[in-house]
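Per reviewer request, we include the raw input and output of the structure prediction for the construct analysed in the revised manuscript.
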Amino acid sequence: MMPGIHRVLSKPGQPSSKLRLVQAIPEQAAKQFGVFTGAQAEASGWSQSALTRAVRSGRLIRLRRGAYLRPQSDQSDQSDQSDQHSAASQRAWLIGVAGVAAALCVSRATVSHASAAALHGLPLLRVPARPCVTIPSELRTRPASLHVHRQPIPQWQLDAQSPVAVTSVARACIDVNREQGLAAALVAADAAVRQGLTTAAELTEVYSSLRGRAGLPSGRQLLELVNGLSESPLESISRLAMASLSQQPELQTSLYAPSGQFLGRVDFFWKHLGVVGEADGRSKYSGDELWQERIRQGRITDTGLLIVRWDWATAMRPAALCERIEHEFQRARQLRAAGIFPRVQTHCAARKVGFGA
């Protein structure tokens, strides 16, 4: 058997004579986020006609001229990084690897902005229509099907672990802020800090190096808000929407009954008012999950606390979210004025909402 060729058995029920030969994926793909070039394929035994047939049959995806990828469902190394049942995750993954294809095929191109964030496994509030790359300012080419940014990227703002030119996690978060705004950047940066992929110091250093450039007005606000305690994009968006509240919450607070019984950990807690906030990203619970959540909520409200819940639709309308929460604040004040106080003990993960608090 020729080097680089794997024999694949026929499907059950097919005659053994129906064996077919499939070329091996080039070794370089494992370090290039699954992407490989036509030249790398040819060096591994592929012919141009074999590549064409593989694309037509769906065994390969042609990302751009001269760059290919196995479909995600065939890649075990991607299964831990993205939710294959989520259309948004699939789009984000594709916009990331499309950036890799561009970096491999376009001279001096670096995967950046949302494409770099996707490669780092960060959530995207909005997946762009085209992959993002940054090229040096002096290059006047405008590659088709790419969102091209032009500026130098210092070596220290690249991912040192990647053989493909990709911006670092901190630089990707700041670039997302410049291109898509504060909300999208906060979603990505909160996740990055929570996962230990970057730090407040790294984000600040990158921000300071770009100060004075276009698109950074909200960079300082991002640094003040970013917090590794937010456990989901919805919680990040909710914190941003709460900016105009009369009182800011504690995050990830554990509640205990006077007896010491653990009642639950809540997303947001206004201790002096006795109000709990829960950002509910699941549109539908299973029967058992719904029952368990009702039991948990009952234990919390039995202590005299008030609970306000909201979903994505409400969080994306800051005025509506703040009005709902302020309504519970008013109810809580009336109860406290009547001498009714919650009977609960707390342990808060951190009282500061952001690094700049």
